[in-house]
# Entry
Amino acid sequence: QAKLAGRNGLQFFTPSVQERSIRSLRLTNALHQAIQRGELSLEYQPQLELNSNLIFGAEALIRWTHPDLGPVSPSEFIPLAEMCGLILPISQWVMAAALQDASAWRALGSTPLTVSVNISAVQFDHGDLVSMVIDELHAEGFPPDRLELELTESVTLADPEKALAQMEQLYAQGIRLAIDDFGTGYSSLSYLKRIRAHRLKIDQSFIRDLVINEDDQAIVSTIVGLARSMGMRTIAEGVETPEQLALLRKLGCDEIQGYLLSHPLPQEAFLEFIKTPVPFTLLEVDSAEQIP
Ligand code: C2E
Ligand code: MG
Ligand code: MG
Ligand code: MG
# Structure
């Protein structure tokens, strides 16, 4: 807390910066009670496998509704939680809640769905990520190979060797690993080679203008080829249009996630979603033929 105040105190003293500092402090204080007060929840965004046209899993995304300020984006409060150490209890809450919800999907579905949980890089440096995850899996009796952890590539790890050792332990348990926001970070290919990731998540910044931007097409095609040669799958994030989907099929991307398929859904709505067949005619393979 003192560190946060000190940091902001050094910033240029424009009103907007001051306002943002006050908001950050207020949010950080409120975050301490958010778990106990039941202000946190999860939403699930379905993921589609393009060859089979089947939903194979969903990403858990945290939501926080502040009693006065309303919904606060995780992009705003997760960094605050990382700075003040609250990321550890919050992550444990997320893990427990996600595994509990995903157990209910298992009871329903014919195919076993994978649940993806976002992991903060801070967790590799502090706390005991490996035993936290294993304990929660045991508590829920959840199969480890149906859990995927998403690690954001855009964060530089303070101690890469220590992080790798923990990833190995998770791998040994059968837990899957995905590299999130791939293409936006600084990790070298030699480091990537040593991570036993199951999946590369192509960052949505490469998908946004994919249809009109040839550089983005080249990047996506390169990531797909890289992943293939290293035995990993690719999933495109932020897919919003049928045109993007058609092009991604053509470029050989394995899976998609995005508003085109579904927005992130609360548990009840997600259960409804997986009970009904994928409703889009635009998910048919021949839509790829319409690309000029
Ligand atoms: P992320 O893991 O890369 O998640 C993808 C973000 O893109 C989510 O934003 C999702 O709602 C959004 N998204 C999905 N489809 C589309 C689309 O078609 N178009 C656009 N424009 N956006 C789409 P969200 O939920 O606001 O989360 C933001 C970030 O916060 C996440 O990025 C992740 O880094 C972090 N986050 C979310 N939940 C957790 C959590 O439980 N733990 C941790 N450590 N971080 C989390
Ligand atoms: Mg993610
Ligand atoms: Mg991402
Ligand atoms: Mg992100």
User: Anything to note?
Assistant: The CA atoms of residues 3 and 75 lie 20 Å apart. The chain has eleven helices and ten strands. Residues 87-108 form the longest helix (22 residues).
